[in-house]
Amino acid sequence: MSEYYDYPNQRAAVFEDELGFHAQGIYSYNTNEFFFLEDQLQQCTVSQLSSDKSDNWLFGYNTGSTNPNAPKMYSAYGALHFGGNQTEQYMGTTTVRGMLVDKWQSCLYWPNMDATMTVNWYFTVDGWDTAIQSRVPVRATVVGKIYEPNFSNGRTPRAINHTYEFAEFRGQFPDYVDPTHLFETPSGYVCPGRKNTKPLPTPSNYFRFTSEILDPNQKTIGFIKEWYDYNMSLVRYDYKPNPINVVNFGLDTLSEVHDWNEGVAYRMDKLRGNCSVTPIAGSDFDAHSLDATTVRIRTAKEFFYFDKTQYAYEGVKKARGIDCNVWIATRNDWPSTGPVNSTWEWYFAVNDWIQSTGHTYDFGMPIQMRLTTSDLSFIYNIYDYDEEQPSIFDFDISSCFNYTQKQDFTFKINADYHTTVAKNLQLFKYEVLLTVHKWTNLSPLRIQNIQVDYDTTSVIVRVTALGGSPIQGDVPNPKAQVDLNQAATMLNDAINKGSFQIPVDVTNIQNPIFLTAVPYTLSSSQYQSVPEYYVAPPPAKTTYSAGQMAGLGIGMLVLAFALVFVALTVYFKKFHATGSMQSSVENPTYSKE
């Protein structure tokens, strides 16, 4: 048995090993709790020190003089039942385990156990130094009687004769022992009924991070990048499928965007260039099933599985060498396809570590999550956590639409590019997106590929608008989407009326200037670039006779001669007299000198 005593922090711990049985007791006087942990069954029970005398006899229990509800442990004298208010008689020197010791004897009565006993203490004599320190206890013997209640409402005496051998007695913790871990429940132990001494962090409505997923059972390592924005109802995650699992979309890295405005998942293989569009599955980690056919986006608390259970604070533990606040809980609703009892343990970096990053987090900095069941275990290491709201441009689904489902819009703004737009080009693009969304009701997800150019007098903006979802989503109330023709009409009207104004932060974001699109400069065109993976249907096959082929050949020769003759005539009429030519597409800011 090993005992640890910490009076300044009002805590103690006992570790016991006997015949392969290992148990641990933790005394938390600050919370009036005693934790008993048994390793074989990995069980933990909690009781109150104030009400269970069998738990508080070892280190004692005193009520505070100023607050009766604040218990205190015995002092070191009281915990050893030696010295202090005890009366001992010196019995001379003797030998214990080959060591010369002083012997002390006292007679004690413990009212909480109704026990009377004679206690002998043996301490090393002065000058007999151990490898640790001098004047240490090496043995204690207890001989006496305990009077226990019987069935006749009386008390029956029971003889006791105990010998306690002490080894490695220290007045302070050695350098190689972390005292924090001694007085806290081990990782993975759920203690029903324990008091929660620190509230669980509240997650932000948007964040992004990279996660390393370890599966010790299958000995696999996976990686996933995640973007979550509850306000925009968008989620994205990039990952490489695990070849051990069922693979439906190949083994290349996939980028998956979930548009919760419509309930549609866009799964893109950037290497192959293809895209699969499906309803969002109820088993996806960001989905909450409402019934057999409809789903909704998980809230931020549901995303981290903080809902439907009560997490308890475990204390400070290390994960990846980082000091972390740790919370633990059990659930019975995971996984959704076949729920089992599972344990969830979350690690968040303590404030001292967070400050070194230079960031301030409302949620905190998650470092690790451990998920275990009777058959499975997963470790999620979280890196590069960021609470900055993801950009809408992080959710690019343009590769899922072919050229018949895209349309380009170009317009001009009378402004100097360098003194307005160039100061924050990304913010300007974002404001363009919001302004297009405002006047067309297009979903921000359908406004992509914003490009900005300029000439000597104007800023030129080009925007690509995507068509609606090719399938019906599975959210209860999908947002209605306008078609491209309707969007083009509304955008044209806003520009021609001078209503299309883009706020620009030049000196103060609280007092932006507004750049107005020049009326009647909007031009639109069908998207011309065809993705390589998109194959247009072949034209109908036509068959010609030998005579028709000969006639076609002669006709093509005549047509070619006529085209060349007309082109030469126009050329000499236009340029021969002046002797010079001017390119109409020359960059006005380019100097030939």
Brief synopsis:
It contains eight helices and 31 strands. With 593 residues, the chain is mainly beta. It has an eleven-stranded antiparallel β-sheet.
Task: Tell me what you see in this structure.
The structure is a single chain. This protein has 593 residues and is mainly beta. The chain is 14% helix and 38% strand. The chain is built from 8 helices and 31 strands. 22% of the residues are buried.
Distance between the termini: 90 Å
Globally, the shape reads elongated
- The unreliable regions are 529-593
The spatial strand order of the largest sheet comes to: 18-17-16-15-14-13-25-24-23-22-21
Rg over CA atoms: 39 Å
The amount of beta strand, in percent, is 35-45%
The average pLDDT is 84
So how many helices? 8
Major sheet characteristics? 11 strands, antiparallel
Assembly annotation: single chain
Helix coverage percent: 10-25%
Number of strands: 31
Structural class: mainly beta
